[in-house]
Design brief:
By secondary structure, this protein is an alpha/beta fold. Helices cover 41% and strands 11% of the residues. It has a 6-stranded mixed sheet.
């Protein structure tokens, strides 16, 4: 790990939290935070852009789409407090990357070992559909995290949008010819020129998990493979 990894990630965190680049997303997130879901009426919503979190010495980088309106936008931590997060943290815990199998708040004691979680977009978008302009506006944050996380050997991209966002943020979208870019499909595995392996997975959204498009066995297969790649590269 470079000596500047943790300070660099802290700087990205501060920049994310104070970001005002996308007025539509900021209006939506603040509106959700005011209105709240009935089950969370007694809670104070975060309502701000949600930073990534995890181990500065991460060997595994997980990239999701965006915070959930009543998940990360409520708790202030990506993938925390929503059904997709339940799937993610259960798998990370199972394969030794997370201290507990479920995360409900940003002060619940969850700790990641050898893993960092980020997102393509840092504000909850209406209908989970950020515009192309919003994706471009948010991309520098992921680029900065990728540059800071020098020990990463495997990236798990959750969904096509996250898959493409990682390739663009890391610079591979422009550097690779279209026919050479890693294709997205579940369990796709591609070795990038810098030696990092990109694993692609369907996103653990309710639409995918409730319909059986993504099963537990398929999902665990992604993180079992990530664990194996980390081990092959010398562990955590």
């Amino acid at each position: 790990m470079t000596a500047t990894a943790a300070p660099a990630l802290s700087a990205v965190r501060r920049a994310v939290i104070t970001c005002q680049r996308c007025p539509r997303l900021r209006r939506y997130c603040l509106g959700v935070a005011r209105e709240k879901r009935r089950a969370f009426q007694d809670q104070t919503y975060w309502g701000r852009p949600v930073p990534g979190f995890g181990d500065p010495r991460a060997r595994l980088l997980v990239v999701g789409l965006a915070p959930a309106a009543h998940g990360g936008n409520r708790t202030g931590r990506v993938f925390t407090g929503d059904p997709s997060g339940d799937w993610l943290f259960e798998a990370l815990h199972r394969f030794g990357f997370a201290s507990v199998p479920r995360s409900v708040s940003r002060d619940d004691g969850m700790a990641l070992t050898g893993c960092y979680i980020a997102a393509a977009v840092r504000c909850a978008p209406p209908q989970n559909r950020p515009t192309l302009r919003e994706q471009r506006a948010c991309r520098p944050f992921l680029t900065q995290e990728i540059h800071a996380l020098r020990d990463v050997v495997v990236v798990a991209a959750l969904g096509r949008l996250a898959h493409d966002a990682f390739l663009k943020a890391a610079g591979w979208w422009e550097r690779l010819a279209p026919r050479e870019r890693p294709r997205f499909f579940h369990a796709a595995e591609a070795r990038l020129p810098d030696g990092v392996t990109l694993l692609s997975s369907y996103h653990p959204s309710r639409r995918n998990t409730n319909t059986g498009t993504l099963t537990r066995a398929m999902w665990h297969g992604i993180f079992r493979r990530a664990e194996a790649i980390v081990a092959e590269a010398g562990g955590r």
